[in-house]
Amino acid sequence: MPVGKRIYLKRNMPDPDIVKGFMDIPASNTADCMERNCAMHPRIKLMSNPDHEMVGPAFTVHTRAGDNLAIYAALRYCQAGDIIVIDDEGDNTRSLIGEVMMSYLRDQKKIAGIVIDGPIRDIDNLQNWKLPIYARSTTPGGPYKEGPGELNVPVACGNVSVNPGDIILGDSDGVICIPRKDAAEILPKAQAFHKKDDEKAIAFSKGEVDLSWVDKSLKNKGFDIIDDVYRP
């Protein structure tokens, strides 16, 4: 089996009930329950106009820089509800996918979203779609179709490691990856954090908050509080 030209048809999949549990939790709340160490680089931006969060199991694609043959293979093998996660080896010069391929993924394959660490094109139309589309940039320049490439292998997307079957969660803030093996432990923490965060926002809005801890922290960290204007 040649490394670089492998297509794995099976994945270890997450519990569907756990995936569903993350649907109403902001990505930021879940990220805060994961030591804030799971968010993809902000170069990956929301390019469409969905009316819901993106959540589902990762179907990973590793392409040669600027080549989309492996993405065409993903069109054949991905499943409804998948989130396609594409590692483009850092390339930002050639679009990997446009409206034609996206239409097939949305209407025929019924994917839950797509995350591309690389460019797309046809943004005039795609920006209005309800399908969650995250990408690095746009360019009219098209890709090669030569390979190599791999499906359902570990990839790096937005400086985050993603394994096939990990849970991908995205909203207007960006995208995070929840490791499949840790998801059952993270979910109740994220649910509790979300509830507490809503209560905290209401308290801050009403001014019902104790910020004395800030003064203590500043003092402990050696900040000088100077009751005067700055003088060069």
From TrEMBL:
Mg(2+) binds at residue 122. Keywords: Magnesium, Metal-binding, Methyltransferase, Transferase. It comes from the Bacteria. Signal peptide: none annotated. The keyword Disulfide bond does not apply. Substrate binds at residues 98-101, 121. GO terms for biological process: methylation. GO terms for molecular function: 4-hydroxy-4-methyl-2-oxoglutarate aldolase activity; metal ion binding; methyltransferase activity; oxaloacetate decarboxylase activity. CDD domains: RraA_family. Its EC number is 4.1.1.112, 4.1.3.17. Its cofactor is a divalent metal cation; Mg(2+). The keyword Transmembrane does not apply. It catalyses: oxaloacetate + H(+) = pyruvate + CO2; 4-hydroxy-4-methyl-2-oxoglutarate = 2 pyruvate. Belongs to the class II aldolase/RraA-like family. Catalyzes the aldol cleavage of 4-hydroxy-4-methyl-2-oxoglutarate (HMG) into 2 molecules of pyruvate. Also contains a secondary oxaloacetate (OAA) decarboxylase activity due to the common pyruvate enolate transition state formed following C-C bond cleavage in the retro-aldol and decarboxylation reactions. Homotrimer. This is Putative 4-hydroxy-4-methyl-2-oxoglutarate aldolase. It comes from Lactobacillus hamsteri DSM 5661 = JCM 6256. The lineage of its organism: Bacteria, Bacillati, Bacillota, Bacilli, Lactobacillales.
